[in-house]
Amino acid sequence: MAHERVLTIDGGRFLRGGREHRIVSAAIHYFRIHPDLWRDRLQRLRAMGCNTVECYIAWNFHQPTPAAPRFDGWRDVAGFVRLAGELGFDVIARPGPYICAEWDFGGLPAWLLADENVRLRTTDPVYLAAVDAWFDELIPVLAELQATRGGPVVAVQIENEYGSFGADPDYLDHLRKGLIERGVDTLLFTSDGPQELMLAGGTVPDVLATVNFGSRADEAFATLRRVRPDDPPVCMEFWNGWFDHFGEPHHTRSAQDAARSLDEILAAGGSVNFYMGHGGTNFGFWAGANHSGVGTGDPGYQPTITSYDYDAPVGEAGELTPKFHLFREVVGRYVELPDAQPPAPLPRLMPQTVAAPRIAALRDRLDLLATDPIHHPTPQPIEKLGHGFGLVHYRRRLDGPARTHTLRIEGVRDRAQVFADGKLLGMVERDIPERTLDLQIPDEGLDLELLVEPLGRVNYGPHLADRKGLIGGVRLDHQFQFGWEHRVLPLDDPTGALALENQEAVTANQTAGPAFHRAAITVREPADGFLAVPSTARSLVWLNGFLLGRLWDRGPQVTLYAPAPLWRAGANEIVVLALEPDAGTQSPDAQSPSAPSPDAQGLEIELRGEPDLGPLATPSTHADY
Fold it and tell me: Residue ranges of region Disordered (predicted)?
């Protein structure tokens, strides 16, 4: 006898446990939420009227190195799925291996890029071997949680929006067979944009096809019916909000407009998955990027900010937004609402401002923060150096005689500070590839250093193979410079390397370039807070050794979400790596920023009680989705 949760299709409709069923789902990502808050966020989505949650599984979050993947702690995806089931949800699992999700490299692990010849998302044997090894670990975990075995997982996706990337039926069939052979016996599906070319490239015979869109449900479902007339209509990603890139305004969508589009989906007999129900946060270095250029060397790189609030019905810190209430009202017209109330609003910390003295220049702490030097004739990307994230330091000795040369640095991914004998010469960045610097070499020669700061890897489109660091050459005039020393600064938790510093000595230190600052914030009890560092142009911020993310005065984001589980009663250590100390004193295009000035030695850190995600873009309407 089928378990009551098993989802099947009959006559163009869903049956759940043999009874007609409509899916009302919300996307939520365990990897973007502190695990102590999983229950809170799930309960809020249940109260909105959802009977299902959908979740991507980020391969790189579980396996950031080629070592065995981890499924413990924050990576306990099985625990997250079981919790959702206990709270009354069915679960739709989307294991990729590619997920997009505005997540670094679309969820693929960076170490794949160490092989220059790998062809991602194809039947390339090197790529498939890595995918198969990952599925050997992951899929048996999911299989045990399927509704056919008494668990909450009712459906599993094959790849993700593949028709937006390529057309390779053999690749999709390999993944389909791989899921089945490893124990998946529940409903399989694909999801793609509502265009016939995308559906042609992304669908699999005899597998449910779904579409992703934010508006014009009748048009989207009509396209789906032309391709799959017998499949029930499903909007697998209802884009009720949007994400933000650095340098853009904060995107929002009118709650009324989104609710009208939701009503159109449900009125057409469709099932829906809110993307996102709750967005969460791209903590650490996990934010991805987009690229609008035709080629990888073209301008058009668009890194994503730390917040993934997404203007969702449940906000980044658990806020119930106007969309929450309007969506609940619309859902209640079509399905019976659960007897569930959302948790009370979570407490917030009281605002305060603290000083954060400069305690160490990053370049003075290379021996403590960086890996052992690796030498190679040409600059190597971070992936070929055995790492996925952090900064990369390149160094080479240039010999005289004295002369002024034009320095060209090719293939910066994504920003590079250039130092000549310890002096900050200028900045080179990815989207201004034509920029050059004038370099005066004395008779005795000089040390040339390049400190490269990667941002997120591209997560969507044709430019996925987005290696970081330097992927080109360095030239003086037309002459390539060979023989480079490489060191990686992973920066997982730099507090140990800073613990024994002499405060007086480092305060006077004038070494150019990025510098660490430290402060203590005392709180009575842990609660949610939001941290701002308005006195630096670009920074990384750690709370008690945990990297919250990145701030940049290009905006829009002003505050970083610091959830209650990361705080402790009493003193809390805040460390800021000021990558550009002098906020507002130089243009982003300046070629010759100065060394730190005495009045830039200290920063101010603001603890706020409310988030600030920046100035709003003009509210979007259905025409933009």
Answer: 582-625
Q: Could you tell me if residue 62 is inside a domain? A: yes
What pLDDT is attached to residue 304? 98
Q: What is the 3-state secondary structure (H, E, C) of 34-103?
A: CHHHHHHHHHHHHHCCCCEEEEECCHHHHCCCCCCCCCCHHHCHHHHHHHHHHCCCEEEEECCCCCCCCE
Judge if 517 and 479 occupy the same domain: no
Same domain, 483 and 535: no
Q: Is residue 295 part of a domain?
A: no
pTM of the predicted model as reported, rounded to 2 decimal places? 0.95
pLDDT reading at 213 higher than 90: yes
Range of 434's domain?
Answer: 372-489
Specify the CATH number for the domain of residue 510: 2.60.120.260
Catalytic, 196? Answer: no
Whether 453 sits among the annotated catalytic residues: the reply is no
What is the spatial distance between Cα 509 and Cα 357, in angstroms, rounded to a whole number?
A: 12
**Options 161, 264, 383, 429, the catalytic residue:** 161
Please check whether residue 600 is in contact with residue 579, taking contact to mean a CB–CB distance below 8 angstroms.
Answer: no
**pLDDT digits over 329-338, tens only?**
999 999 999 9
**1 pLDDT tier (thresholds 50, 70, 90):** very low
Residues 476 and 513 placed together within one structural domain of the fold? no
Q: What are the pLDDT digits (tens) for 79-126?
A: 999 999 999 999 999 999 999 999 999 999 999 999 999 999 999 999
Structural domains counted in the chain: 3
